[in-house]
């Protein structure tokens, strides 16, 4: 059902990005899956960079957030084998590299949230934090962590 919805949207879940440092991409505890923060890598390349509100527009940062969400799904799939095992998306934490005075982090986070709800429907409605930061790894404009519940 979720895998099919992604195909309908023309989205292929890539192979999970390799960690950029000393951590694992996802951890399972009980029926919860926690992802490490995912940046908008596509085919190993960062296609969006810089501070939102200075180097990158809100619209491009929203696109970057969607890529981060796809990468979160990728590491979840690598951990549980099949996205159809997801019962519900519980939480997104969205870090936005922000220029001084930039206050539209929630708008950037909507790039990921709207995509997740489009794919998962009611089961994609989640709680969220959108946090402005002065910088992110490898000059990424957005980084996202996700928590999902698996079916029992």
Query: pLDDT average, as an integer?
Result: 96
Biggest sheet layout? 5 strands, mixed
Question: Got a strand count?
Answer: 7
Helix content: 25-40%
Rg (C-alpha, Å): 14 Å
Question: What is the rounded distance between the termini?
Answer: 17 Å
In CATH, the homologous superfamily goes by the name RutC-like
Order of helices and strands: HEEEEHEHEE
Structural domains: how many: 1
Work out the strand percent: 25-35%
Key terms:
about 30% helix, alpha+beta, about 150 residues, two-stranded antiparallel ribbon, 60s Ribosomal Protein L30, Chain: A, five-stranded mixed sheet, globular
What does this structure look like?
This protein has a single domain (2-12, 33-150), classed as 2-Layer Sandwich (60s Ribosomal Protein L30, Chain: A). It is 30% helix and 26% strand. The protein has helices at residues 2-8, 58-80, 105-120; strands at 26-29, 32-35, 41-42, 45-46, 86-97, 127-133, 142-150. The chain has a five-stranded mixed beta sheet with strand order 1-2-7-5-6, covered by helices on one side. Strands 3-4 form a two-stranded antiparallel sheet. A hairpin with a 2-residue loop joins β1 and β2 (32-35). The two termini are 17 Å apart. The model has no long low-confidence stretch (mean pLDDT 96).
């Amino acid at each position: 059902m979720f895998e099919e919805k992604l195909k309908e949207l023309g989205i292929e879940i890539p192979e999970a990005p390799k960690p950029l440092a000393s951590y694992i991409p996802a951890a399972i505890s009980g029926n919860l899956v926690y992802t490490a923060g995912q940046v908008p890598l596509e085919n190993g390349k960062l296609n969006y960079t810089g501070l939102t509100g200075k180097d990158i527009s809100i619209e491009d940062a929203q696109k970057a957030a969607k890529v981060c969400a796809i990468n979160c799904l990728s590491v979840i799939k690598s951990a549980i084998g099949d996205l159809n095992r997801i019962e519900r998306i519980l939480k997104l934490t969205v870090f936005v590299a922000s220029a001084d005075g930039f206050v539209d982090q929630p708008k950037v986070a909507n790039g990921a949230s709207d995509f997740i709800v489009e794919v998962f429907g009611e089961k994609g409605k989640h709680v969220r934090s959108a946090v402005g930061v002065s910088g992110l790894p490898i000059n990424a404009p957005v980084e996202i962590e996700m928590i999902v519940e698996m079916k029992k």
